[in-house]
Each structure stands twice: as structure tokens, then as C-alpha cells.
Design a protein that fits this description.
By secondary structure, this protein is an all-beta fold. The chain has no helices and 5 strands. It is globular and about 45 Å long. The protein has one domain: Beta Barrel (OB fold (Dihydrolipoamide Acetyltransferase, E2P)), CATH 2.40.50.220. About 0% of the residues lie in helices and about 30% in strands.
Length: about 110
């Protein structure tokens, strides 16, 4: 699971039949210190989250599990609303990401 803040919603007049009746939200992934940690993404809401709330979300195959037995074609879904998490013992600076080149040793 990852943390994110809901920053908007998506209105789709045409979508896959498996998504009909499900809300799509725009998420901004966050670090444990609430710093921006990646690019925004769209996720299917399974818990009734709203704009401004901090949520847990999952990616990959597990993203469709909250909707079983329905088949929902999604790569990301919101699985929980976070009421509170302390950040007193967490470094507020974002973790730097390094990119490896193909064939590099390390």
C-alpha cells in the first residue's frame, strides 16, 4: 500500500462497462512525511474518499480485489482513508531516486 492525497476527480462520459458506477479520483502520491513522491495518477475509489483526503492505495493486480466478484479493469484503487499518521520521527526530506543505466555494475 502507498499513501496519497486526493487532488481531484475524473469525469468520463464513456468508459469500460466494468467501471460504470465507480468513482475515479486523481491521487498525488506522498512520502511518509507528506512530501510529494511521484506523478499524479488516476485510481478507482472503493471506500468513498473525497478531494483533500489522505488515502491508502494499491497498484497492480490487487487493485481489482476490493470489487470482487465484479470485474473492474484497474491498475490502481483506493483501499482506505487515513485518519491520522504521526510524522515526528520521519525525515521530512524526500528520498532521492537514482537511475541505473543498462549494463552498469553496482
Amino acid at each position: 500500500m502507498q499513501l496519497a492525497r486526493v487532488i481531484g476527480n475524473v469525469v468520463a462520459t464513456t468508459k469500460d462497462p466494468g467501471l460504470v458506477g465507480h468513482k475515479l479520483l486523481v491521487l498525488q502520491p506522498l512520502s511518509p512525511a507528506r512530501a510529494v513522491a511521484g506523478e499524479p495518477l488516476v485510481a478507482v475509489d472503493s471506500v468513498g474518499a473525497g478531494t483533500g483526503e489522505e488515502v491508502f492505495f494499491v497498484r497492480g493486480r490487487e487493485a481489482s480485489f476490493p470489487f470482487l466478484p465484479d470485474v473492474v479493469p484497474t491498475d490502481a484503487s483506493i483501499t482506505g482513508i487515513c485518519d491520522y499518521w504521526p510524522t515526528d520521527d520521519v525525515d521530512a526530506s524526500p528520498v532521492p531516486r537514482t537511475r541505473r543505466r543498462r549494463g552498469s555494475q553496482g
